[in-house]
Write a structure and sequence with these properties.
494 residues, mainly alpha, transmembrane
Length: 494
């Protein structure tokens, strides 16, 4: 069946009443958590993992996709109205969006953000539709050595890009690797790093780590920086929609942001922060009214918001086709697949096409839902900002504990959640990035398995890791990720 035929089958799956309800629920929940500062899609999906274990995988992932896209929409609202990005990808939107709101053009800023998100999300989903099957076909050519080289690339690029310090990035990565090897070795049957504790023989439960890192650690960090001063919310003024001049100045940034965001989201370590920064810089250089930047230029909202949403679709390409997470949210989605006993990769397209194409089709539907939810109902969403922070975060903590207890019923897991939560708080406080920890934890079983398989095929010779052009290319890219920034820094200081 060709791509269009498979996509139509995906729409049949996504348009069932039950799945439409899950898509709407995910979109509304995503918008809400995007608006609430400090709560991102990664935290929300981590909290939902224990709850959705009884829901079918197709419905669960349709809801997760709604949460992912909805958070991108909702994050722009707080950036514009209170100058506080709801999630990391909305940082650049705050620079110009908040200035527009203060100048009485908040409605236009919200409109260009919402419409730009819709345009970019739809185009990027189209790219995902046609790129994913091609990448999945190419992945069938990969040998174990190639997959191992790919995981090395993911380790190095994510550890370097996701933190200000390479040392801190690698410390975080190695903590994740250490957690990932706890338990019984699959090949020898010997316990590793269990310290005689029977509860660790099955390894560290991934859901426990995710909830600990994103809920407990985040709440402790927010509480330590809590200020009793109320955020000043700028009322939405101006016309409900954009003027003709606004449309004229926005449509090109939307397209440019999409072109920047999608490929950056797809590469390891790209994330949403880098493409939004690149988009903002590009729009500042290309703008005719360059003097408006810093005072409320609409291009500075349109471009980064488009790049943000396009990057969200981009992370799904390596995740679905190679099982490779390129961001914290993608790492949690990979954990969700594993919770259902599924392994993303080229075989997922043939073994479970209903899930893959239902998920992709739901992205188109979710985009339309989000546009309808965000433009007319922005006043309603803004009321969420009035929820007192102490009550909000206390509720999240209780929900997290109930979720972990519901999944495992283990006092040990609750204690482990507390310990890992304190560890992640310390990491945040001292500037250690969290995503490398998650990437290390999730990718270490794949990396170890592929390395051992490759070495077994090569009768123990390490040369087998450098015998194919694909593995050489990936290892060379990993080398460049590690050492080129260092060389450039030395050249600048010389």
């Amino acid at each position: 069946m060709d791509t269009l035929g498979l996509l139509l089958h995906g729409f049949e799956v996504a348009l069932t009443p039950a799945n439409l309800m899950w898509a709407l629920l995910g979109s509304m929940l995503g918008t809400a958590i995007g608006i609430l500062p400090g709560i991102g899609p990664a935290l929300t999906i981590a909290l939902l993992l224990p709850v959705t274990i009884s829901v079918g995988p197709v419905s669960a992932f349709i809801m997760f996709a709604g949460v992912l896209y909805g958070a991108m929409y909702g994050g722009s609202t707080t950036s514009i109205l209170i100058n506080t990005p709801g999630e990391a990808g909305s940082m650049m939107t705050a620079l110009e969006g908040n200035k527009m709101a203060k100048a009485g053009r908040g409605a236009a800023a919200l409109a260009t953000a919402a419409i730009g998100s819709f345009v970019a999300g739809t185009i990027a989903t189209l790219m995902l539709t046609f790129a994913a099957p091609v990448v999945a076909e190419l992945a069938f050519l990969f040998k174990p050595a190639d997959y191992f080289a790919l995981t090395v690339l993911a380790f190095t690029s994510v550890a370097v890009v996701m933190g200000a310090s390479r040392v801190r990035g690698f410390v975080s990565l190695f903590i994740g690797l250490a957690l990932g090897v706890i338990g019984i070795d699959a090949m020898t049957g010997q316990p590793r790093m269990t310290f005689g504790i029977a509860d660790l023989l099955d390894g560290v439960e991934l859901t426990v780590v995710l909830v600990s890192v994103f809920a407990v650690g985040e709440i402790l960090y927010v509480a330590s920086h809590y200020s009793h001063a109320q955020d000043q919310i700028i009322p939405v003024k101006g016309k409900a929609y954009m003027s003709r001049e606004d449309w004229k100045r926005s449509w090109k940034p939307w397209l440019r942001g999409t072109v920047i965001g999608f490929p950056m989201g797809a590469i390891p370590g790209g994330g949403s922060e880098i493409p939004t920064m690149l988009s903002y810089t590009l729009e500042k250089k290309l703008a005719k009214q360059r003097d408006e930047f810093g005072k409320g230029a609409i291009e500075g909202v349109a471009g980064p918001e488009a790049a943000n949403n396009a990057a969200a679709a981009g992370i799904l390409v390596p995740l679905l086709t190679l099982g490779l997470p390129t961001s914290a949210t993608a790492a949690i989605l990979l954990a969700a697949f594993q919770n259902y006993g599924l392994q993303p990769g080229p075989f997922l397209f043939t073994s479970n096409p209903e899930l893959v194409w239902g998920l992709i089709a739901s992205l188109y539907i979710g985009n339309v839902m989000l546009l309808v939810l965000n433009l007319p109902l922005v006043g309603l969403w803004v009321k969420l900002l009035r929820i007192p922070r102490p009550q909000l975060y206390a509720g999240i903590l209780v929900f997290a504990m109930m979720g972990i207890w519901g999944v495992s019923g283990s006092v040990f897991d609750l204690g482990l959640m507390a310990v890992l939560g304190v560890l992640s708080y310390v990491m945040r406080a001292y500037g250690f990035p969290i995503p490398p920890l998650l990437i290390g934890l999730i990718l270490v079983p794949l990396a170890e398995n592929q390395l051992r398989t490759a070495l077994a095929a090569g009768q123990g010779s390490i040369r087998v890791l450098f015998e194919t052009p694909i593995s050489i290319a990936f290892l060379l890219m990993a080398f460049l990720f590690l050492f080129v920034p260092l060389v450039l820094r030395r050249l600048r200081s010389a």
